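Hi all, a correction to my earlier message: I attached the wrong file for 4-oxalocrotonate tautomerase. Here's the right sequence:
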Amino acid sequence: MPYISIESGRLTAEQKKQLIERLTAIASEILCRAKRFAYSNIQEQFFTLTIREIPDENS
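and the right structure:
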């Protein structure tokens, strides 16, 4: 199953929600167009996405 990993500074809950929704949708769309992949029919619900927030060292 596709796995997406993001490293970022601190994010709001809304920013995380938007990242998850939009990155998953775009990745699914791109992979569905790539007919050469065995998993080209992967639906969005089968993606795993993690967000690792890295604290600002100056805080």
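Sorry for the mix-up. Helices lie at 13-33.
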